[in-house]
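Query structure, 363 tokens:
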């Protein structure tokens, strides 16, 4: 089954509502930067590369919205036009606000900022064009970012598949699948590529409390794909490893620091420590757009703290004791020393460090 996490339809962006999967499969429509930012914040779309693609479309949508003829504007947010120059000035002001609202949606996945930076460069490079021309150029760039993401995932998948032996039982945490990207996936892309190459692998999916990306999304994707998958709760991973039931771990990432420290879904660090204890290789599938050379170590990666309601229970069913203090950091950092290899579209960086990462990125 081809999963189109995000798709352009006529004049709008459509995104699968990942909050309600797998109970229901539904697309929601988006027409502005603010609505896309809300879709990212509320986790309609999630996963680092998918967030980046959504943000790129958010910028394009804002340009389309702001460049519409005032009589056909879909929003009360009309431009006060004052000739060609005035029109462009107002347009640029609106665009700047669009960038700001998108940048504030979620803090940890660097792909969001990477995509915004790329869209900004295009916007700046067409300074003399009309808002309508700029909007078309930005839309073309968003389409390119989406297509490129799938190409990168396939290249990464092939590089990662080579690391898995036939029959491997591979554990993963959270969802780094087609749903977390424009398609194919990063960690789950490695599994798809391994199966495509004829390897009989099986997947162990951590449930991934509190948002249940493993139980709801990874398990669903693997079932759709007919890849054997077993669901466990997060606290069962050590038991399975101790009993020799896990051959490798492959996870995705939201941001990798210049020294190779890896931020990913809360609980990943725990899995990495366990893998080290049991001599199990721990791989991170990581497109180059997820490496942040501006951040020296994982200690400087901003970690999102989400609503405590997510920990109280699930959706409207709350089981935590009333009045209890709750924490909800959404990501943790795995030190580079616990990472066996970073699987990228350009190749695998074994025992990642500053030199290895810089060398691969420069090459
Ligand atoms: O909070 P989420 O669901 O956006 O977190 C997603 C993850 O942690 C993924 O593992 C990561 O973004 C990599 S996705 C290819």
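Result returned for the query:
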């Amino acid at each position: 089954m081809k999963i189109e996490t995000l798709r352009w339809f006529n004049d709008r962006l459509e995104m699968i509502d990942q909050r309600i999967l797998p109970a229901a499969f539904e697309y929601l429509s988006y027409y502005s930067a603010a609505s896309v930012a809300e879709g990212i914040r509320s986790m309609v779309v999630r996963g680092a590369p998918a967030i980046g693609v959504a943000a790129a479309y958010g910028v394009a949508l804002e340009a389309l919205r702001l460049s519409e003829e005032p009589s056909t504007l879909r929003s009360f947010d009309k431009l006060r036009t004052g000739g060609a120059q005035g029109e462009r000035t107002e347009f640029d002001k609106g665009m700047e606000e669009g960038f700001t609202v998108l940048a504030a949606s979620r803090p940890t996945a660097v792909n969001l900022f990477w995509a915004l930076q790329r869209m900004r460069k295009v916007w700046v490079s067409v300074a003399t064009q009309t808002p309508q021309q700029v909007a078309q150029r930005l839309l073309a760039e968003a389409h390119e970012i989406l297509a490129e993401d799938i190409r990168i995932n396939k290249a990464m998948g092939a590089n990662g598949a080579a690391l898995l032996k036939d029959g491997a039982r591979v554990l993963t945490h959270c969802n780094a699948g087609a749903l977390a990207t424009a398609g194919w996936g990063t960690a789950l892309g490695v599994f798809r590529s391994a199966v495509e190459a004829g390897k009989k692998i099986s997947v162990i999916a951590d449930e991934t409390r509190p948002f249940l990306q493993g139980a709801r999304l990874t398990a669903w994707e693997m079932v759709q794909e007919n890849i054997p998958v077993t669901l466990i709760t997060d606290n069962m991973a050590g038991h399975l490893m101790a009993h020799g039931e896990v051959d490798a771990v492959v996870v995705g990432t939201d941001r990798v620091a210049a020294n190779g420290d890896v931020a990913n879904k809360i609980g990943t660090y725990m899995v990495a420590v366990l893998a080290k204890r049991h001599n199990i290789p721990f791989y991170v599938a990581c497109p180059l757009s997820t490496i942040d050379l501006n951040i020296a170590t994982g200690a400087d990666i901003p970690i999102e703290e989400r609503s405590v309601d997510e920990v109280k229970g699930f959706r409207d069913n709350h089981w935590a004791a009333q009045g209890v203090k709750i924490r909800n950091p959404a990501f943790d950092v795995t030190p580079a020393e616990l990472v066996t290899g970073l699987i990228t579209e350009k190749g695998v960086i074994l025992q990642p460090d500053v030199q290895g990462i810089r060398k691969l990125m420069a090459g």
